[in-house]
Amino acid sequence: QVRLVESGGGLVQAGGSLRLSCAASGRTFSSTPMGWFRQAPGKEREFVATISGSGARTYYADSVKGRFTISRDNAKNTVSLRMNSLKPEDTAVYYCGAAVSLFYSGTTRPEDFGSWGQGTQVTVSS
């Protein structure tokens, strides 16, 4: 079981930037595809970005492509999400998740991620 702790959320004006971090512990991190998801009030958890175990492959939701960048540092057991040009519609609780399968498929389904952090709130004011 991978244990995850997110940090870096906060309040930012539209057009601003934030960097979220997720610290992982537990089973072999470098083999595990990771993902960032978000959940706004009254909405289902939605996919934001995923990254393969090596970091060589990434995949983004259309709504964040070109604005957000997912990365990982396997030496430090961390995965990050750099968010630029933030919009009010990016407001949500952001969660990092560890994929159940060690095979990177680019899945965007929350049910394919078996471990979640507690989430970090991102609020973008207009």
Question: Could you tell me the mean pLDDT?
Answer: 94
Described by strand count, sense and barrel closure, the largest sheet is: 7 strands, mixed
Sheet-strand content, in percent, reads over 45%
Rg, nearest Å: 13 Å
Residue windows where pLDDT falls under 50 for at least 5 positions: none
Can you give the helix content as a percent range? under 10%
Q: How far is it from the N-terminal to the C-terminal residue, by CA?
A: 39 Å
Care to count the β-strands? 11
Shape: globular
- Coarse structural class: mainly beta
Q: What pattern of helices and strands is seen along the backbone?
A: EEEEEEEEEEE
Describe the structure.
The chain has 126 residues and is mainly beta. It is 0% helix and 49% strand. The chain is built from no helices and 11 strands. It has strands spanning 3-7, 10-13, 18-25, 34-39, 46-51, 58-60, 68-73, 78-83, 92-99, 113-116, 120-125. The strands form 2 sheets. Strands 2, 4, 5, 6, 9, 10 and 11 form a 7-stranded mixed β-sheet that branches. Strands 1-3-8-7 form a 4-stranded antiparallel β-sheet, with no helix packed on it. Strand 5 (46-51) and strand 6 (58-60) form a beta hairpin. The model has no long low-confidence stretch (mean pLDDT 94).
